[in-house]
Amino acid sequence: MRVLILGGVAAGTKTAAKFKRLHFNADVTILTKDKDISYAGCGLPYYVGNVITEKEKIIVNTPQKFAALTGANVLVGREAIHLDATNKTVTAKNLETGENEVYAYDACVIATGASSIVPPVEGVSLEGVFTMRTPQDAENLKQYIASSGAKTAVVAGGGFIGLEVAENLQSQGLQVSVIDMAPQILPGFDPELAAYATRHLNKMGISVLPSTKMEKITGETKATGVQTDQGLLSADIVVLSLGIRPNTAFLKDSGLEFSKNGAILVDPTMYTGLSDVYAAGDCAMVYNRQTEQKAWAPMGSSANMEGRILAEVLDGTEKQFSGVLGTAIVKLPALNTARTGLNEAAAKAAGYEVETIVTVNDDKAHYYPGAANFITKLIVDRNSKKLLGAQVLGPGAVDKMIDIAVTAISLGASIDQLDNMDLAYAPPFSTAIHPFVAAIQILQNKLEGKLVSMTPAEYMQNRGKGYYIIDVSQVPALPEAHFVDVAAVNGPLEGVPLDKEILLICTKGKRSYLLQQRLRHFGYTNTKVLEGALWVNEPPLETESTNEGMDK
């Protein structure tokens, strides 16, 4: 069997390696345009920041090493330019000789990946303007930092790669700004958590400017700034991280079907519908595991899973790719962020009756050195109580929280099946009630009416206006609010009517919940706890917290 694979990196090399393990005598050929056939694209920002000091460490396999390990035939410098599905051939241009070469196949796998989007604006060709997609991109940027004496940088794009690049540029001593046309950074996160991350990055010295459009890059021969619709930003270096586009233009007359962004439509076996032609990786449009709708997941993790499944399909095994959840994680300065499943807006759009909770919990025993907090948002379907999504932020191991959520969502678990999980506990690693379980239990309290709350999203919409604010922090934190020590409350609050609309705010949320239960006992009927409290939310805007006469 002749298997011809167009492209390497993750999906292409994984398909080849797995299929050769199943059929070592099979004729497997990889055609790739680049000389680096298998590299750690997600590691490129960390090479720029000298976290990874040797370029060789982000090159997973050289063509020679891969061929020796797998038995596949690897031909670099070959750019596929035409697919003839009728005659089962691919025409590729030899970039060294300029000649066209024709390759026959029994099965063709398209794994041509995607390329960085470069906007059609003035200045993108200036010296000092970079993309971040290949090892050479990272090498070029790293050398320019060392040789140019650059002091300022603008990263255009607030997605995961863009933010990782921003962190690593800052670590090299540059003053960094991040701009994005979208109203928020961290695509896929809900706005209130993206807003928290924005405030955090600004505090850490990375200026984040959402809702900001790049109009041109200034400079004569090299970049000096970025002109935006909000003003001019100084920039000795500009990194374009505006997303990627599938490398499928050469296939437009092949008979394949494409999504709007140019990704190839495939079924769960990675089959394109064109006889003996398959696609995997960043050039393919797969499925969302929860909604069963089309989903594009240009991630190395997904590409590897797709490639493995595809190799088994080519072997004749009845296998299907289960789809993606949109799981992602990114390291920011002193803050890790991760998400999986549906965010609140997507869950509502999918027709679920949505409930959410935002909690702030210890990430390990509070007395253990290095203990910090997780900000956790859970999204659940009210009817089935199935967990639909999770988002977690914190300086610690957010991956373990998200991986629990991935497992729960993949198995269709309800929150009632998750509230007593026997998860690992020891002070260096967790809390006695695991922080994920704690978040689940708080969500249960909300669903059962034991906790009545206002979400950070509602608070951002100024839904707290008109509420009487009570500060329940350990020490007063809101100068204009009525401070209450929860431990000292043994009856109705003096001067505060039992039917008054009250918003309880503390540092993290727990003390507010404790006071709500106590006030309920004493007859208060209209209290709400601010989820995430002052840890997540900005201090109150204009409210009735001053309430002249209320405390007299």
Question: Any overview of this molecule?
Answer:
Mean pLDDT is 95; it is low at 543-552. The longest helix has 15 residues, at 300-314. It contains 13 helices and 33 strands. It is 24% helix and 26% strand. It has a 5-stranded parallel sheet with strand order 5-2-1-9-21. Helix 1 (11-22) runs parallel beside helix 7 (300-314). The protein folds into 4 domains: 2-41 and 58-115 and 245-314, FAD/NAD(P)-binding domain (3-Layer(bba) Sandwich), CATH 3.50.50.60; 129-242, FAD/NAD(P)-binding domain; 334-447, FAD/NAD-linked reductase, C-terminal dimerisation domain (Enolase-like, domain 1), CATH 3.30.390; 453-536, Oxidized Rhodanese, domain 1 (3-Layer(aba) Sandwich), CATH 3.40.250.10. The radius of gyration is 27 Å and the shape is globular. It starts with a strand and ends in a 16-residue tail after the last helix. By secondary structure, the protein is of the alpha/beta class.
Rg, please? 27 Å
List low-confidence stretches: 543-552
User: What's the CATH first level of the largest domain?
Assistant: Alpha Beta
What portion of residues belong to β-strands? 25-35%
Summed up, the domain count is 4
How is the CATH topology of the largest domain named?
Answer: FAD/NAD(P)-binding domain
The overall pLDDT average reads 95
The CATH architecture classification of the largest domain is 3-Layer(bba) Sandwich
State the distance separating the first and last CA atoms: 88 Å
User: Can you count the beta strands?
Assistant: 33
Helix- and strand-based class?
alpha/beta
Q: What percentage of residues falls in helices of 4 or more residues?
A: 10-25%
The backbone outline, from C-alpha atoms, is: globular
Quaternary: single chain
Largest sheet: 5 strands, parallel
The fourth-level CATH homologous superfamily of the largest domain is FAD/NAD(P)-binding domain
Number of helices: 13
Q: For the largest beta sheet, what order do the strands appear in spatially? A: 5-2-1-9-21
